[in-house]
Each structure stands twice: as C-alpha cells, then as structure tokens.
Amino acid sequence: MNPKTMFKLSYGLFVLTSGFEGRDSGCIINTAGQVTSEPNRISITVNKANFTHDLVMSSKKFNISVLSEEASFDIFRHFGFQSGRDTDKFSDFKDCVRSVNGLYYVTAGTNGYISASVEQTVDLGTHTLFIASVEDMDVLSDVPSATYTYYQSSIKPKPEKPASSGKTTWRCTVCGYIYEGEELPPDFICPLCKHPASDFEKVS
User: Fold this and answer.
1) Which among 27, 32, 47, 57 could bridge 52 via Cys, Cβ 3.0 to 4.6 Å?
2) Among 114, 65, 124, 119, which Cα is nearest to 89's?
C-alpha cells in the first residue's frame, strides 16, 4: 500500500482561529468544507495536539481564513511550525482583523473568511471533527485558493540537498526537516511541523 496516494486527494489550506477566556490562537489545517447549503454548515477536522483545537472545543466557535496563492511561506511557518501553548501567535501579527464573533481572521494571503458556531463534535481518536453553522463570511480577494499541491510546488521553499555526512537522511515533505539515521522510526513525529513518519522521504 502506498501512503502517498493520499496526496492525490484535493485539499485546500486554511488558517483556523479561535479564542477563549482571553487567549487567541490559530493553526494551519487542510480539512474544511461545506457539508450542507440549507442550512449552511461546514466541517473541520483538527488534531487534538493543537492548542487551537482546545480553544474551539471550549468556545464552540471559530473562524476559517481561506489561504490563497498569494500566501507566503511565513504564514505557514507562523501558524504551523510553533505551538500556541508556548507562543502568542497574535502578539506581533498585524495582518488580522476581529470579526463580529470576536475572533481574529487573517487578511494577508487569504481570499475569504468564514465564521462558524459548533453544533456537533465527533471524536476521531487523534482528531476531532467539528460540524458548525455558518454565522458570517466575506470574500477578501479574487486570487485563487491555494491547494496542498500548489503549496508543495510554489509556496514551500525547495529544500537543499543535505551535505553528505555518510549517514542515511530522511526529509519531511511538509516542512523540509532533515532526520539522520539508517531507519526512520515508524512512530517518529517531525519536531517542526508535527507530521508523522509517513510524510518523510529518503533522500540519501
């Protein structure tokens, strides 16, 4: 079985934001979509390890900022490669506005935002599926939405081939992190982007 087949599915990319009791945070997700039009509902799936997951679970509300092809890698680094448990991601981030629900949405490198209120949750083990009703939304630009494929080909920096150290190296296909070792442990988690061993490729 080839796990890379999953990459053939079409994914959008989004900044999920939420807040609770004075704490704001956000993370990158690739699982947001409309599930019904009347009434208008969307679904998101969020890893339980993310601090933003806990904020959504507590507040029962969130915003989705739809990333466009103008999104810079800095947005992915800012919201995807550090934890909101340790860092206030909005303390020095200026490209954001609070929507009517009081939560931030991202204005740079995005083409729209959606505000939603959680109606149902489904425990998926490592993740939670949230079904939510749309409360507000707006189009921010006409730039096409960024797909995961576009991110890989046009936004993510191309990693340099690691200098030869005589060791076997494995590279994270999401963020470019290099692991050295003859074998990559099957339960290895990338220390930068938190993706699993299945998202690594052998490079030397």
Assistant:
1) 27
2) 65
Rounded Cα distance between 42 and 32, Å, is: 7
Sign of CA dihedral 145, 178, 52, 26: negative
What does the angle CA 25 – CA 31 – CA 33 come to, to the nearest 5 degrees? 110
Tallying the residues shown for the chain, one arrives at 204
Task: Give the residue from 11, 7, 3, 2 showing the smallest Cα distance to 146.
Answer: 11
Instruction: Count CB atoms within 10 A of the CB of residue 47.
Output: 15
| % the chain with pLDDT above 90 | 66
Residues 39, 58: Cα–Cα separation, whole Å: 24
* 192 pLDDT above the threshold of 80: no
